[in-house]
Amino acid sequence: MVKKYFPLVAMLLLSCNLLAQSVGGGLFEVNTAASDAKASVIATSSAGTNKNSVGDAESQKVRSGLLAAIVDFLTAISDGLVSTASADTGVDSSANILANAQQQAKILGLATNGSVASVTKTIERKTAELKAKIPQLVKHKSIGGKGISAGSEKFKTWFNDAAKYSKDWKFPDVTNKYGQKISREDYLRAIIWIESRGVHQSSSGKMTKSWAGAIGFMQLMPNTARGLKVNASDAAQNLKGGAKYLGEIFNSGSVSKKDGAEKLIMGACAYNLGPFSKSMKMTWDQLKTAKIPVETRSYGLKMKMALGLELSASEKTLADKWFVPKGQTVDEFTDEFYASAQGIAR
């Protein structure tokens, strides 16, 4: 989406250049000393301009006004380009965005134009600000003894094998609040953390099991595991089973008809409540206040936290009420939750 704007910006810059020459006979420059977001255009005057002509003076005034309007527009969208860049492509793609902008300018002979430099500088600054907000990811360690966890020596291999089953997911293109594009692997990490905190089997050898009988890393129910043709007690197969099950959720039923962040959140709720529950026909806004188990609604909130999606004020209130530990703020818990979830298999 961002790339669509570069030809427009470049053409406007060229128009500014031509207008400036017609007004004063020279190039214009952008003064960015005061602020990246504010720009002022200075048209250099030409000795050859006929200032004694009322018609020429009026024409010059019109051109100057148009020139100023175009520059004001460029200034206004510079921050817009930054935010759109973050939303559409993620922090990791910012270098490509800058390269594309500079290439467009170069093609039109504007490579050294000050306004391009201003946009570039603003993008770099916004990118740095986003990266600075990303919590440091947790490096998971082995729990020792007979334990099997996200810190186990073979876990990354098991995880990568399971992730191969995610390639066929009908997965939406979503960018989180840190400007990072959310991947299928990120989603797997989030489910593992929410379900089992990354522990398949305790150090004493006890299998991680829910009150309902769900087993292991991905908390698969025995009947579900049999339907997926995996052994839920086996760590590697448990991960594969969870990835296959998520494929069914994303590709069929009510969740498959949703898109964007809504699909990611409702996919998590479906993993908890069941993909063919009538509740999955609701929107997330409807479901989070519906008369269904708090466990399922909490699951949606936790998924947002684990993926780095921004919580609304009302969602923070619900999280604080339902599961955030006393003595800890929602923001503190969210940072820890994200860091632990996304630190899996790194």
CATH architecture grouping of the largest domain: Orthogonal Bundle
Might you state the CATH topology name of the largest domain?
Answer: Lysozyme
Largest sheet: 2 strands, antiparallel
End-to-end gap: 30 Å
Number of helices: 13
Beta strand count: 4
Shape: globular
Order of helical and strand elements = HEEHHHEHHEHHHHHHH
β-sheet strand percentage: under 5%
Describe the 3D structure:
The protein is mainly α and 346 residues long. The chain has two domains: 2-132, no CATH class; 148-341, Lysozyme (Orthogonal Bundle). It has helices spanning 5-24, 54-89, 94-107, 114-132, 155-163, 184-196, 222-227, 235-251, 260-273, 284-287, 294-307, 313-322, 330-341, and strands at 28-31, 40-43, 148-149, 199-201. Strands 1-2 form a two-stranded antiparallel sheet. Strands 3-4 form a two-stranded antiparallel ribbon. A hairpin with an 8-residue loop joins strand 1 and strand 2. Helix 5 (155-163) runs parallel beside helix 8 and helix 9 crosses helix 11. It is globular and about 60 Å long. The chain starts with a helix and ends in a 5-residue tail after the last helix. Residues 23-54 and 78-92 have low confidence and may be disordered.
Write the layout of secondary structure elements.
Elements: H1 5-24, E1 28-31, E2 40-43, H2 54-89, H3 94-107, H4 114-132, E3 148-149, H5 155-163, H6 184-196, E4 199-201, H7 222-227, H8 235-251, H9 260-273, H10 284-287, H11 294-307, H12 313-322, H13 330-341
Antiparallel strand pairs: 1-2, 3-4
